[in-house]
Write a structure and sequence with these properties.
Distance between the termini: 29 Å
Strand content: 5-15%
Number of strands: 3
Shape: elongated
Helix content: 55-70%
Radius of gyration: 24 Å
Number of domains: 2
Strand order of the largest sheet: 2-1-3
Low-confidence stretches: none
Structural class: mainly alpha
Largest sheet: 3 strands, antiparallel
């Protein structure tokens, strides 16, 4: 075994597995099958699988909530009774809306990835069988 190899990609579902694993952690396929050998993975390839996609909606929601907190803090410091609460409600509402959009985006991405995995798995099974 090479020192650069830290894991193996399953030949059926493509899931990266640690070097010590003999069976795929996702589908249970034996990784050292002579007909369908698992692909050796370097550290970079192994980490690429776990790299998270950036979600702009969540980032916007964070900053909008932060602005709302700053406005509330400003209100508490200055003790202005005539402060317009509409601005705070606006930023909190935007933050909630963008967080929901972000969660929907993550759900959509995971559904698309699972569909792709199912198609790849079915294709590999038909080619192997």
């Amino acid at each position: 075994m090479s020192k650069n190899i830290i894991g193996y990609a399953c030949s059926i579902c493509g899931t990266p597995n640690p070097e010590s694993a003999t069976y795929c952690v996702k589908c249970g396929t034996w990784l050292f099958d002579t007909e369908r050998e698992a692909k050796p993975l370097t550290k970079k390839e192994y980490q690429q699988y776990f790299k998270k996609e950036k979600n702009p909606y969540r980032r916007m929601a964070f900053w909008q909530a932060w602005f709302a907190v700053l406005f509330i803090y400003d209100l508490a410091i200055k003790s202005q009774s005539s402060f317009d609460w509409t601005l705070i409600v606006y930023f909190v509402g935007l933050a909630v809306y963008n967080m929901r959009l972000g969660n929907g985006l993550v759900k959509k991405q995971s559904e698309e990835q699972s569909e792709e995995l199912k198609k790849e798995r079915a294709l590999k099974m038909t080619q192997a069988g």
